[in-house]
Amino acid sequence: MSFPEGLEGSGQGLTRRTFLLAVGSASLLVACNGKAPATHAGATPAKRADGRFLQLSQALTGKSDLDPATAARIEAAFAKLHPDMHAQFPALAAKAQQVQGAEALLAAVGDARPTALAIITAWYTGSIGKGPQAITVSYRDALMQRPVDDGLFPPTYAQGGPAWWTAEPPAAVRAHG
Hints:
Elements: H1 16-32, H2 51-61, H3 68-81, H4 83-86, H5 89-98, H6 102-108, H7 113-125, E1 127-128, E2 135-136, H8 171-176
Antiparallel strand pairs: 1-2
Helix pairs in contact: 2-3, 2-5
């Protein structure tokens, strides 16, 4: 591409670099079709958890400190992947109001036991479903991480820096080891 004499690189008018930057930016905008490049088509903001499902989850897991945002994601994933199980949530929540203790609740739910166990599994593994259709709702905060979170990080979380495993383990781990 040729520019008029004296304009190229002189700081006046259109330079080759400016032209290429403009063409590249315009191409990116056209490719994104008006959306931000990092926007995921299926991404939805976390909605507020249904209080009944959160209470049901607390009753089933025996944990009172469950995250409401994770509860909302678990409930939404069940509604999407397992609507038949999701339809049993209100009856399970009502049963949870009548029975005290996770084991007693599991014994009292009858035919809904597989659904109750699936809810517990979702909280512990941080995912709902299996295979390519599975939905991950939590990884770092899945309940299965709690027993070792004082001394170990989930795989891919090396928060202690290089060679963090060579440091002295926490006192609680040494006392039981």
